[in-house]
Amino acid sequence: MTDMTTRLAGVEFANPVFTASGCAAAGKELDQFFDITLLGGVVTKSIMNAPRSGRATPRMAETPSGMLNSIGLQGPGIASFLEHDLAWLQARGARAVVSIAGGSVEDYATLAKELRGHPAVSMIEVNISCPNVEDRGQVFACDARASSGVVQAVRQNTAVGTPVFAKLSPDVTDITAIARACVDAGADGLSVINTLLGMVIDTTTMRPALAGITGGLSGPAIRPVAVRCVYQVHAALPHVPILGMGGIRTGLDALEFVLAGASAVSVGTTVFGDPGAPLRILDELEQALAERGIERLSDAVGLAHRPPVERVPEDPDPVGDEPVAAMSDSPDDSPSDSPFEDAFEETP
Ligand SMILES: Cc1cc2nc3c(=O)[nH]c(=O)nc-3n(C[C@H](O)[C@H](O)[C@H](O)COP(=O)(O)O)c2cc1C
Q: Could you confirm whether 130 is annotated as catalytic?
């Protein structure tokens, strides 16, 4: 029907639907529900150098149309990940996108070296939403220079031909400034977006619901923010591939991200309640494209950026008037009716 293949920085994937980091571990559990090799790729939980037990519990809380988590990057460490998780994905024949996380530029460089040239690694996603232990816990992703340092270190230690995607945080004033810094530092693409920092207070205990006090907000509640971020990043850097995510629950949700400029999407929080969702979303997206007469997924990428169709005002007196075309000749006589320009002007 529709050609669903997608290219991310020169690497081809059979389709644009991926898991989201941290929401499907390394794919083994999801594989009990559907054949994970049918996905575009499996994005693994961010791995760090050393094993980590994560934050104290409780570390999840429900929110309207979403959830809050403060897992704290629990994981087995890179050595065990390579031996068990990546080896399993390789044996299973799935496309692996390995997400890495660290507390210093050196941590990220070491992880990249460990993964360098591994045949099972289709792509690396750099989770820069981590506190920088060398800078008072300042989150890398919230600072252009810090983001750039991490991306440069990973790119330098990653094989040519393995795309490096930097995963951006929405908790910044201007996401395009961070996006540009990452691309200038060598990122081949961008993952947009990570969770938003949030908080829930339990009104019974009258204390924060999470032991970590704050947590990352995800799910449908963040989708409009995520779509806005993808749209802005694509507008600023139209040739940079984007893996879009944030509250995708249906094929039409995924289509929104594609139209905003994403060449692929990750499905995260939705799989907790509906483990089969990624495949269903892939089917629904394919159908939605076909219904719109779009033969190739790639033709839909960024389509929401095309100029608005000129609306011709209804003519109350069609006889003896100027030709309608003349009404649109002067670009300066009225404010643009583009909802996009207005949106940009209103962005703080
Ligand atoms: C429980 C949980 C754990 C997550 N862990 C990671 C992680 O390890 N690394 C990362 O880059 N993003 C992590 N994320 C963020 C997701 O990958 C995704 O960017 C975000 O949740 C938005 O997508 P969604 O609304 O579809 O979940 C996590 C999200 C959740 C809900």
A: yes
